[in-house]
Amino acid sequence: MSVTSSQVLKLYKDLLRYGQQLKYTEKSYFNKRIRNEFRKNQNLEDTAEINLNYERGLTILIRRSVV
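^ Complex 1 LYR protein domain-containing protein, sequence as received from the core. Prediction below:
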């Protein structure tokens, strides 16, 4: 399955929304980490790597914890 850019953007927004629900000390760390990871991977072209990172993000939302 190939992940579209709109799916990645939705995941990014969902992760940031989830970060707003965390305790104050965890909130800033979580949001900073999410932003940094997305910036670091914004130029990925390998479909397998994109899918892997997308699945990691979904796992965080499902488990409600950082993996």
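Residues 13 and 19 are 10 Å apart (CA to CA).
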